[in-house]
């Protein structure tokens, strides 16, 4: 059996909610740029279809009946859903005007993205990119939740359920003070660094999670003396002899970390070479600007 409420349009529900809010048929008509008789006709139709008396017609005032109050709660949910739907439409329209939300981890921004975005924007000057820096786990969550259009993150493989592929790769190196016992080595195994204190990133960073996991696999504890999410700060603390650090090799030149008093030593471990992945959210696949940037980053 068909639902008789399907004969009621959204505007009638909105009028019902407005009258309930301001207690006036004439004021509602003015707000909606309608005649009072047109508003009254719609409310009568609503009462006829529902077979309920929704308002008490009092002198100078419209008051909800008990049935009207019950219907208002449900109607409010419907109007709220439509408001949220309209908000989504507006966001999609705005983003169709060539706005792309890009989330990326710190390493990718410092090592690769600044150059790639510059080249892309030179080729596509009408596209705007809103870049947000966050950790790799949050990038993946944001893509699944459609809080980002494109994301770049470290992982063993592209995020499940998302279109994605390899974007770039980097290699981690061990950073030590030039007076450190390991400073004379050209290449070392990560396990040999576990005899010393570490200056490393905060708990949610990809590098910390990686080296903590490798230390656990080696049956060793990772002795962390200090933490920071700033590459330069970690470099300075290593130089001061506070501990050893693990950083991507390319960041040493790009953020000016090669300096006197510090040695960068290659790690022999295979896991030291990391792959960056780029993925596009399901919602963003319909956005031309997002598709263009995604395709460019996959090259």
Automatic annotation (TrEMBL):
Gene3D superfamilies: 3.40.190.290, Winged helix-like DNA-binding domain superfamily/Winged helix DNA-binding domain (1.10.10.10). GO terms for molecular function: DNA binding; DNA-binding transcription factor activity. It comes from the Bacteria. Keywords: DNA-binding, Transcription, Transcription regulation. GO terms for cellular component: cytosol. It holds the Pfam family HTH_1. InterPro entries: HTH-type_LysR_regulators, LysR_HTH_N, LysR_subst-bd, WH-like_DNA-bd_sf, WH_DNA-bd_sf. Residues 8-65 form the HTH lysR-type domain. PANTHER family: HTH-TYPE TRANSCRIPTIONAL REGULATOR YBHD, LYSR FAMILY TRANSCRIPTIONAL REGULATOR. Belongs to the LysR transcriptional regulatory family. This is Transcriptional regulator, LysR family. It comes from Edwardsiella ictaluri (strain 93-146).
